[in-house]
Task: structure prediction
Amino acid sequence: MHIPENYLSPSTCTAFYFAIIPVIKRTISKVKRNLIEEGFHF
Result:
């Protein structure tokens, strides 16, 4: 489903932006941990 342009207010976008940050951080840490377990080191 597509959200039309200017449908979401700036305050809604800001709230979603800050809400997704912990999810992205957790995802990155899980990917790093899985890569290290598989033998890929940074």
